[in-house]
Design brief:
about 400 residues; alpha/beta; four-stranded antiparallel β-sheet; about 45% helix; about 15% strand; globular
Length: about 400
């Protein structure tokens, strides 16, 4: 019997990152591949107390269905946090809880994209978003970037000359994979263009709170005067990814669509996980926890940068990220990062080749490194192995 799948399945293939994360299960491999938070920083002891408190105080509610929008207390905490951290002015009614921000990405594709529509993305862009959108059959146009983010002159040319642009997807803070952050000047110009052309924007912000130096930048959502920006947030990078707590923040007319799609997908996100996240925020200081994370990650970034300065041969460029989880490496054009990865796996070290982050191909001389999920010893040894492999290919 010949099984016939939907045409959209032709657009889907296994995520390169997911495949590479299999290497992380091998204890002999030092992996800089995934975007994993450091598990030793998870508040395990606190969460034991939180779980008991939730079940003792509201056990029957915690184990029951809840509304699609999600737990009211948690949504209040998220709105307050967004307004305080990212200079927004949003209310609880503009928040919908999702199962991680990845679900918000999939919903965005389902809501905005018809087959053949144009989606604008940074070049490079987050592979998980590209894969989520690909299911809906768009054409991607990559907007060139530099050290300060998306280049606005290039964006303006594309907006002026391209028909059927349905949405723009961006990560302005500590971008995955490049680690770059948009300047205030870029954000202002971007919103001017968005307002002029009235194109919906998906602002993905998993890392914005993880700034190691300087002040947190206002989000695009904070500068949105026409209700065009959909903000995706998550607790995965600042708290615990296993809870799968993300959110969509959007004006009512747009958020209703996400609500309808959420009902069809899974009715609601986990009641007990939402209540535990809210209870943690009530019982403990999430800001203090984030400061602890930032302290560890900034030291790991510094150590990775130091070894790159000392060990990498001339002709290699990389991003100095002011926060987040990643740095981005550009090799000489004659070196293919996929070939380098094969050599590195023999040396028991892993990273993500950069080509997959460009939806229209090319740029195979790039790769992404993660510094958050490695001890100092692993960082030193792994980066030295990586440097040896690069030197062997120069």
């Amino acid at each position: 019997m010949a099984i016939k799948f939907a045409d959209r399945m032709e657009n889907l293939k296994a995520s390169e990152i997911r495949e590479l994360l299999k290497f992380a299960a091998d204890p002999t491999i030092i992996s800089f591949a995934g975007g994993l938070p450091a598990p030793e920083l998870f508040p395990v002891e606190e969460m034991k107390k939180v779980a008991v408190a939730v079940l003792e105080e509201s056990g029957q509610t915690a184990l029951q269905y809840t509304t699609t929008e999600g737990n009211v207390r948690l949504r209040e905490q998220i709105a307050e946090r967004m307004n305080r951290k990212f200079k927004t002015n949003v209310t609880v009614d503009e928040i919908l809880i999702t199962s991680g921000s990845q679900q918000g990405l999939d919903f965005s594709g389902k809501i905005f994209i018809n087959e053949g529509d144009v989606v604008l993305v940074e070049s490079p862009s987050y592979l998980g978003a590209l894969n989520a959108f690909k299911a809906y059959g768009p054409n991607f146009i990559e907007v060139p970037t530099d050290d300060h983010g998306m280049i606005m002159e290039e964006l303006e040319k594309i907006l002026a000359s391209t028909e059927n642009i349905k949405m723009i997807y961006v990560i302005p803070d500590f971008q995955n994979p490049s680690g770059k952050t948009w300047t205030m000047e870029r954000r202002t110009k971007f919103m001017e263009l968005v307002n002029k052309y009235e194109i919906p924007v998906i602002e993905d912000n998993p890392y914005g709170e993880l700034r190691f130096e300087g002040e947190i930048m206002p989000s695009l959502k904070a500068m949105d005067t026409k209700g065009l920006v959909v903000f995706l947030g998550t607790f995965s990078k600042i708290f615990a990814p296993g809870l799968r707590i993300g959110w969509v923040c959007a004006p009512d007319a747009i958020l209703q669509k996400y609500n309808f799609v959420k009902q069809g997908a899974d009715l609601q996100s986990s009641t007990i996980a939402q209540m535990e996240a809210a209870k943690y925020c009530d019982m403990y200081d999430l800001d203090a926890h984030v400061e602890k994370i930032k302290s560890v990650y900034s030291k790991r970034r510094d150590l990775m940068m130091k070894i790159m300065e000392e060990e990498f041969p001339e002709g290699i460029k990389w991003t100095y990220s002011e926060g987040g989880l990643f740095t981005w490496v550009v090799l000489p054009e004659h070196i293919n990062a996929r070939d380098l990865l094969k050599k590195c796996l023999e040396e028991k070290v892993a990273f993500v080749p950069g080509g997959a982050f460009f939806p229209n191909g090319g740029n195979e001389n790039t790769f992404r490194l993660n510094y958050s999920n490695a001890t100092d010893e692993m960082l030193v040894e792994g980066m030295k192995r990586l440097a040896r492999a690069i030197k062997a290919m120069m």
